[in-house]
Amino acid sequence: PWKDAPYKDAAETTDMGYISLNGFLSQWALMTSLDPRYSLANLIYIGYRAKPSAALRVTCRRSEDRKKQKTERNVFQCYIFGSKNAGKSALLYSLLGRSFSNNYTPTTVERYAANIIELIEGTKKTLILREIPEDEVSAFLSNKDFLAACDIAAFVHDSSDGYSWKKSIDLLEKVVNQGELTGHKFPCLLIAAKDDLTPFPRAVLDSVKVAQELKIDAPIRVSMKSGDSNVYVKIINAAEHPHLSIPETEFMRKRKQHQQLLHTFIFALAGAAMALVGLTARRARANKNSSS
């Protein structure tokens, strides 16, 4: 069932080109995340005899996870945003254990990569990366449910390119603001790719300043050329704390201030109404007493 997009080339393979065990399990997790009914149909097709619904685990809503400040999920979906040639695809290839290539091919359609990540304490989680082409972000965001499946978002920039950095912040604000409007909030990470190159001027100062303004961590510096795989552990660690690393953009601050002013106005209006009712009642009693 995985010969076509979005499953094609989305899992780890062996040196001979066959899908590995981790690849098979990750691919199945990807299929279940994207299309649970299709996953159940394939389970039945291969001879699964137990109750099909028992094969799926239903987790809490992401909003509930944020309230509880923890999650029981074993599969995390990370949306990858960034400018062209920022290094997004290299993150996906490295997750699948593929060697780095200097050849650049622009991504024109969304694509996935999934694999099992072993954390420091020995537990294993499945990480699904979903790469969103820069030119398609607006089209995707026009769907109000686009961000519903997002556990965490990563905004990638070329650490040697100032424009790429600015574009990643623009995309972050655009995505986070849309999430605020549609009720989808999630942790966000900044990833400074191509750390083996010379950083653009003021890179460190700008990144620290912006991170402080957004109230999130400073960019994670990685180089896929050197095979830096620790970034995937950091992505999962952040996703496991759904109440943290949620950016606060200028739009969100103004919206929060507006809501606070609105609540203050409503309370003041309610207080004035109660005072008016009390005054009216006292006058009514006074008139009644004087007439008697």
Topology at a glance:
Elements: H1 21-34, H2 36-45, H3 62-68, E1 75-82, H4 88-95, E2 111-118, E3 124-131, H5 137-141, E4 152-158, H6 162-182, E5 188-193, H7 203-214, E6 220-221, H8 230-239, H9 250-291
Please sum up the structure shown.
The protein is α/β, with parallel strands linked by helices and 292 residues long.
Give keywords.
Rossmann fold; 292 residues; alpha/beta; six-stranded mixed β-sheet
Helical coverage, percent range: 40-55%
The major pleated sheet works out as: 6 strands, mixed
* Rg, alpha carbons: 25 Å
Question: Order of strands side by side in the largest beta sheet?
Answer: 2-3-1-4-5-6
What is the rounded distance between the termini?
Answer: 90 Å
CATH topology of the largest domain: Rossmann fold
Label the overall shape. Answer: globular
Please state the structural category: alpha/beta
Number of beta-strand segments: 6
* Strand percent estimate: 5-15%
Describe this structure in words.
The chain has 292 residues and is α/β, with parallel strands linked by helices. It folds into three domains: 58 residues, no CATH class; 186 residues, Rossmann fold, CATH 3.40.50.300; 42 residues. It is 44% helix and 13% strand. It has nine helices and six strands. Strands 2-3-1-4-5-6 form a six-stranded mixed sheet, sandwiched between helices. Helix 1 packs across helix 2. The protein is globular, with a radius of gyration of 25 Å. The protein starts with 20 loop residues before the first helix and ends with a helix. The mean pLDDT is 88.
